[in-house]
Amino acid sequence: MTAPESPIWFKSSYSSSNGGECVEIAFAGPAVGVRDTKDRAAGHLTVSSPAWDAFLGHALSRNPCTAPST
To answer: Residue 33: its pLDDT value, please?
Structure first.
């Protein structure tokens, strides 16, 4: 991710409260970063915003009861 230099990471509301199963995301312009909270130092996966939208659309189509309210 190139911008912002210090992205703000958000923990998934569906992550386990016991730890070890947490995912964080950060939005940075045309990109979305995804990382595992167990090993933040390992880096993150960066995908384009359209790819992230497609991933979410697919995930929600598989389990529509978990769609976030807007």
So the answer is: 95
- Residue among 44, 42, 41 at smallest CA distance from 10: 44
* pTM given for the model: 0.69
Question: Residues 56, 58, 61, 65: is their CA dihedral positive or negative?
Answer: negative
Residue 15 neighbours by CB distance under 10 Å:
14
Name the residue among 13, 5, 10, 45 with its Cα closest to residue 24.
10
Cα 32 to Cα 25: distance, rounded to the nearest angstrom: 7
Angle at 20 between CA 5 and CA 57, to 5 degrees: 65
Taking the CA atoms of residue 41, residue 46, residue 49 and residue 52 in that order, the dihedral angle to the nearest 10 degrees is -80
